[in-house]
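Chain A, query sequence.
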Amino acid sequence: MNGKILIVTAHLKEAKLLAASLSGCVSGPLPYRYSAPGMVILVAGQGEESLRRSLVSLPLTGIRVLLLFGTAGSLTTVYAPGMVLECPWVHTLEGDILVSPLSLGLPRASILAVPGPVIDPAEREELFREHGTLLVDMESGGFVKIVKERGLPWAVVKVVSDTPSEPDTFPFSVELDTLLRENARVFLGAVQEVFCDH
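Chain A, predicted structure.
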């Protein structure tokens, strides 16, 4: 398959952990933070507006698929911190459900895109009752809408960062760094299995 894989992250930390797991990875070229054989990594910033600014005018010549990688909070106790999940069903607060055409072969979960952090456990419980999704984040909805406008296939992969009983707060903790580092390798292994020639 021809063309590069573009991996998008919200935070530089996530991009650095991916880069550390890729052989032959180097900085740049701009606008990308890192590049490796067959892949480029873009740090788009947190939230839908940052993603839109980063992606809407990005030249995508030579890009064959876009992948969003990062963290997400759990709306229930089903998934513990550290689980890496493919999110082929991206729900919006407006009631839209955006479905990925791809499968990376990872465990699957639905995700709800929201405009800001959801720290309060009661608010998480309310979102779960109303929307029925298992995860929540701030980037997936905007990412998918923009990528669909650009006409390219996409996938969203998230590492569970926290649960309603133990909500996460930024910046990244040492424990979350470790979980992300381990699951960056899991994610990249799945990507290489699906998209790279063997």
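The helical segments are 12-20, 48-55, 121-131, 140-150, 174-195. The mean pLDDT is 91.
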